[in-house]
Design a protein that fits this description.
heterodimer, A: 113 residues, mainly beta, six-stranded mixed β-sheet, four-stranded antiparallel β-sheet, B: seven-stranded mixed β-sheet, 0% helix
Chain lengths: 113, 108
């Protein structure tokens, strides 16, 4: 199970951090991917963080604005997105693995307004 | 970037009918690294099929995936009331991972 932090409302230019706590398995066993879904749109891949060495790979359009980390002591992954604009308004999801997403968090609505 | 185009946009069918959903890729999805997801309003996507044709754990056998190369299909043999939802295909052979725009299966 992946449990995400609650909804956020942010001003343009601000930053947001979404957390994703895993239960039932150790987070370092598999990678964690982050995706987002704007209203009425399909999911958009944002990037992943590798399980074994913490290596990250981000979507080109988000390079420089996004950082993904993990804390193995609390079995939690984090995604920070900076310099928010209204285009970043979406539901943000964490998902297990880096290719096929077999478990998803419940989603975190981030509203930029 | 591999672009996935799903058709039709909306499928209007009755319970018990067969649904056939299409996903076409802009370039070959090698090793059949294609997955299908179901999403209901207010919920996260749910993995149905991976490897183009392998059902995920707990997915009923009325769901089947097929295809290779650039053309893939998800078939729901007999629609149950809980199957009315939006379906997405996704490729995971290339980065960035990409999704289709979705097919909505609605009750006729």
């Amino acid at each position: 199970q992946l449990v995400q932090s609650g909804a956020e409302v942010k001003m343009p230019g601000a930053s947001v951090t979404v957390s994703c706590q895993a239960s039932g398995y150790r987070i370092f066993t598999y990678g964690i991917s982050w995706l987002r879904q704007a209203p009425g749109q399909g999911p958009e891949w944002m990037g992943w963080i590798s399980a074994d060495n913490g290596q990250t790979h981000y979507a080109e359009k988000l390079q420089g604005r996004v950082t993904m980390t993990t804390d193995t002591s609390t079995n939690t992954a984090y995604m920070e997105l900076r310099s928010l604009t209204s285009d970043d308004t979406a539901v943000y999801y964490c998902a297990r693995k880096m290719g096929v997403y077999d478990y998803w968090g419940q989603g975190t609505l981030v509203t930029v307004s | 970037e591999i672009v996935l185009t799903q058709s039709p946009g909306t499928l209007s069918l009755s319970p018990g009918e067969r649904a056939t959903l299409s996903c076409r890729a802009s370039q070959t999805v090698s090793s059949n690294y294609l997955a299908w997801y179901q999403q209901k309003p207010g919920q996260a996507p749910r993995l149905l099929v991976f490897g183009a044709s392998t059902r995920a754990t707990g997915i009923p056998d009325r769901f089947s995936g097929s295809g290779s190369g650039t053309d893939f299909t998800l078939t729901i043999s007999r629609l149950e009331p809980e199957d009315f939802a939006v379906y997405y295909c996704q490729q995971y052979i290339d980065s960035p991972r990409t999704f289709g725009q979705g097919t909505k299966v609605e009750i006729k």
